[in-house]
Amino acid sequence: MEKAVHSSTKNGPKVPGEPTKTGTSMVDTAASAVQSFAPINQIHQHLCAFHFYAYDMTRQVEAHHFCGHINEDMRQCLIYDGPDANARLIGLEYIVTEKLFMTLPDDEKKLWHTHEWEVKGGFLFMPGVPEAIQRQDLEKVAKTYGKVYHFWQVDLGHQLPIGLPNIMMAVTRDGQLYPEMIKETGKQFGVSMDKERESRAYMKGPDHGIHPLANGGGKGLTLEVREVDIKPVESVPRVFV
Amino acid sequence: MASSDERPGAYPARNGAENQPPGDPETMKTVMIDKGAAMMQSLKPIKQMSLHLCSFACYGHDPSRQIEVNFYVHRLNQDFLQCAVYDSNSSKTHLIGVEYIVSERLFEALSPEEQKLWHSHDYEIQTGLLVTPRVPELVAKTELQNIAKTYGKFWCTWQTDRGDKLPLGAPSLMVSPQDVNMGKIKPGLLKKRDDEYGISTESLKASRVDIMGPERKNPMADYWVHHGKGLAVDIVETEMKKLAPFP
Q1: Where does the record place the region Disordered (chain B) (predicted)?
Q2: Per-residue DSSP letters for B129-193?
């Protein structure tokens, strides 16, 4: 097995740049005192899990999700490469119940992955929350589907978010995730994934089973950029701004 | 499947009537578990977002399609910002993407191929399109001067402007308003934003006359303006390199 490529803000490269000047940070301090952050205030939950690239299972990343409910059936999450203040925003995830997943067009379904084994296997957890309380929510998460894009390949040591987005996938059976990576994360957060697996054995995945079109539909997925024709930029009527 | 695809057909939940994603209201149990968890977790990364900016963006494969955007910004250092992007500033909002912002210095060190994916910010700041809600211009000035010299890269993952009830398809590369006819923001869209925030974009221009863009605007940025071509993103099937069977 290849050496684990485990991303962590502790060891990752620092984002290049000069320290923030006082005059600049004063604006941010003032702003944060008077502005409304309603969308961010919806974020109530921190989940830690692992993603791999949809075309390369050997590249695996610890992913810290910060999630808010849009409604009972849907969550939207910001993904960071660590739990600390200096963590890098590397992607996002949408999580929907089976009910909503089934309304997706067929060729959309492949972009989504199941959470059943991530949860039941003990790999996904809520740092800082007692297991018995976590389970009340995670038993719901086990039945959901997620769509993840990462925009920053921190596992390649990129100092800046270069390149195209990547669709990510999640663990669906044992043998996919690097044992050393799981052990290190478990140790860092004081969780025993093996023990949790036993406690979560009662949980069920989607009612209709894992949809065959989900999880890439069995294929790898990657993104490419392409130039397209657009109308001449001066061809639309002039408006004054 | 591409970011430039027309609406996928036969998608039952789209009726364009209201823009809320389908789904039941949160149950009390969910709310309580959420609140309980939030008390036990520090949520440090998201507490770093300390600035709200409202502006407009255009789709990179079709810049005549324009949207209002709300950025919640975390400044990591003097040269780099990371932003969560939403389509409104209310609690009932959609997370539509992520934008990264770099200084001129960091931008110049990127490869030309990478630079094509980025856009400049000076026009939208000088014309008052980009605003700092509730923060007086005088207070915001330093940040506006900083950001006017930066370049941004914005991936949009949910096309709510065309009525998508769920995030569909490939991510779109977004571009910024620019000083060409196609890059000017439609008056209706602008008025809606200004009325909502009780501001006047027009009157902000006067206070921003002295705000300068980058020392030397890089011609690889705002690729569509200089080359007349947009950029679309395709999702392509390929073989997955595996360690074990999948799924």
Answers
A1: 1-28
A2: -SB-TTS-HHHHHHHHHHHHT-EEEEEE---GGGT-SS--SSPEEEE---SSGGGSPPHHHHHHH
